[in-house]
């Protein structure tokens, strides 16, 4: 259970960092794409390279989130199977409920 909590907090921190990346993507889209008001604002190709790197980071974020969901789903599946064998185990039921809220 301690390992699961550590992993859970690690994933939370990764998601926080990756949300920041999402915010940067939105900001770059809003300020990079040339419009009449931003024509004289720097080199568009440099901005687009930066935007592309942010988009790659976003794709990485999506992959990590899907991996986390898959791992937690496997834990839930295992706990459900254990619960079928030991229906009177309250501690197991609590652990199952905690994991289900993560998914």
UniProtKB/TrEMBL annotation:
Any one GO cellular component localisation term in the record: mitochondrial intermembrane space
Coiled coil: 69-96
Keywords: Coiled coil
Domain of life of the organism encoding this protein: Eukaryota
Claim: Transmembrane helix is one of the keywords in the record: no
One Pfam family, short name: MIX23
PANTHER family referenced in this protein's UniProt entry, alphabetically: COILED-COIL DOMAIN-CONTAINING PROTEIN 58, PROTEIN MIX23
Family membership noted in the UniProt record: Belongs to the MIX23 family.
Protein name: Protein MIX23
UniProt source species: Pelodiscus sinensis (Chinese softshell turtle)
Gene that specifies this protein: MIX23
């Amino acid at each position: 259970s301690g390992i699961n909590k550590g992993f859970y907090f690690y994933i939370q921190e990764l998601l926080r960092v990756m949300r920041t990346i999402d915010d940067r993507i939105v900001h770059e889209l809003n300020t990079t794409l040339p419009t009449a008001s931003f024509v004289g604002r720097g080199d568009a190709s440099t901005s687009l390279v930066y935007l592309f790197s942010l988009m790659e980071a976003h794709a990485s974020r999506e992959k990590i989130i899907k991996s986390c969901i898959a791992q937690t789903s496997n834990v839930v599946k295992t706990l459900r199977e254990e619960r079928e064998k030991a229906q009177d185990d309250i501690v197991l039921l609590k652990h199952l409920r905690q994991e289900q809220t993560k998914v």
